[in-house]
Structures are given as C-alpha cells and as structure tokens.
Amino acid sequence: MSEKKFQSVYLLVLLMAAIVVMTAGCGSKYRVKTMEVTAYCGCGQCCGWERGSWKCLKLDVWNKYISYGPRAGRPYTGLTASGTKPREPQPGLFSGDSLTHPWMILVRIVFFPWLLLPEDGTIAADTRYYPFGTRMFVPGYGYGVVEDRGSAIKGPRRLDIFYRSHTEALQWGRKKVNVTIYPK
C-alpha cells in the first residue's frame, strides 16, 4: 500500500513539474525601448493621395489616387500594408478613462454597447524589426498593433501612430517616449 501511495505522489509531482515547465514561457515578456514616435492621419498630405486621375485636369474628383512613389496614379484604398482599415485606440468600458470619467460609464453602456471592449490602434513600424501583429503600448496614445509600414519609418527605434484627424496628428508631433513592446 505504501508503494502505491508513493507512486501516486510521484506521478502527482511529475504532473506538477510538467505543468510548471510547460507554462514557464507563457508569461508576457515585454521590452521597453525609447523610440521616436510621429503621428499620421488618413488625409492626402499624410498618406500621399490626391483627388482626380489626370495631372492637368482633375475631372475624376470623387476618387482618390496615389500622387507619388512607385504606385503613383493607382487608386488609393485607404487600407494599411497588412490590409486592415487604420483606427485609433478605444479604451473600452473598464479602463483608466472610466476611472477619470465615471459619469461616462452609463452613456457607454446605453448608447455605445459595441465600445465596451477595448480596441487597439494602428501603428506603422519597420516590419524587419516588428512583424505585423506586434502589440505595443505608447504612453499618451494607448495600445496599438503593428499593421502598417510607413515610407519614412526605418529602423528599430521609429514608429508612426494613426489618428483620425490631421489636427490631432499635428498636436502629437514628434516625441521620444518609452514604448512597451509585447512579443507576438
């Protein structure tokens, strides 16, 4: 009987050790880097598109076309390099924003129930260093996911964050901030 008890304890210890070994790498191992972060929006000035297809007489004013670079003259879709639509981060119901503005909780629940869950913003980065899907936290902006690559975003210490309006992008300007990078 003691031998059976010993075997069951031995199996239990082995099982616990296996669980510890298997879950040891599951913790979020993040890195913090000081990066130069700029902002962009979807306007023609930031994204390089213009209305109309012909250079001299722009009759096709309802469509957007890429104005420079190797894809000049092709239709502008407004999608990121990964094929998603760019977006700003949304804090969701349970966030720091809910703590500072508690009166907005009821408004969010009643009028905007689809905004209960947080949504990450769009970040443009050099995909040689940060592949699509890499999650980051930029202080002053929030959480974002690498979904785009900018033409001027080269190297491991440069990011471009998306804003809906050109004014907000200009207000951000160019900042050096400590960005938290979460592996994919």
TrEMBL record:
Gene3D superfamilies: RlpA-like domain (2.40.40.10)
Keywords: Signal
InterPro entries membership: 3D_dom (IPR010611), Resuscitation_pf_RpfB (IPR051933), RlpA-like_sf (IPR036908)
Domain of life: Bacteria
A Pfam family assignment: 3D
Gene Ontology CC: one annotated term: outer membrane
GO annotation (BP), single: peptidoglycan turnover
GO MF annotations, alphabetized: hydrolase activity, hydrolyzing O-glycosyl compounds
Residues covered by the 3D domain: 122-181
Name by which UniProt lists this protein: 3D domain-containing protein
